[in-house]
Design brief:
Strand content: under 5%
Largest sheet: none
Structural class: mainly alpha
Length: about 260
Amino acid sequence: MRGYARRHPIASLETVGGQCILGLRTIAYLFQDLFTLKFPVAEFVRQSAFMASASAMPTVFVAIPIGMTLSIQFALLAAQVGATSLAGAASGLAVIRQGAPMVAALLMAAAAGSAVCADLGSRKIRDEIDAMEVMGLSVIRRLVVPRLAAAVVVSVALTGIICFVGFFSGYVFNAFMQEGTPGTFVDTFASFATVPDFILTMIKAVVFGAIVAIVACQKGLSTKGGPAGVANSVNATVVASIILLMLVNVGFTQLYVTLFPRTGF
């Protein structure tokens, strides 16, 4: 039992604690470097370009079927209750409130997060991280801070792309495949969608991008055991990121519904 507790619950608490400490230190260094003009802009640009190239096209191709699927489901449900005119509002709000930030975060975790973890894990097993620390260089400032900033920026951009592509694909499918009325689809969406909905989505995108970056960096910097350890760290990064993203999304949604209840149009 002592061995099980040390390998699982205690190890889980240590991992979460390490991620919280790394996140706080990274955010503090980020603002400090921005104000002192020491932010590694070149590394930030390289990481942003890499994450965007790895996640942009998969995001677009995933957003299209998601918008169509939501349009199909909500159109069927609206037809059953005799409210076919509300299909646009339902599918559009579903894409903006839940679909866009979650799809962007999941693809970031699967594509960018795994790549970041593999990069840092490879450096760790080659003793590059230890060499940087011996030379007096801050690993967090040189490696983690630009990746966190890049993940946040790319996550926000991908979320905006998914909002547009998901809504547009649902609109096209509803208008041409389900014989819906284009004007009604747009009008009902405009009646129900509000600015706070989009603001919440952007806040989610920022938080989700930061979560993916912190989890990936923490797993990569704690890699041990050679090449097999890198593979294990990458697998743990994807799994842990997805679970944490789901839990945080539930918290955000419940908090938003509680603080900003909808009472009418």
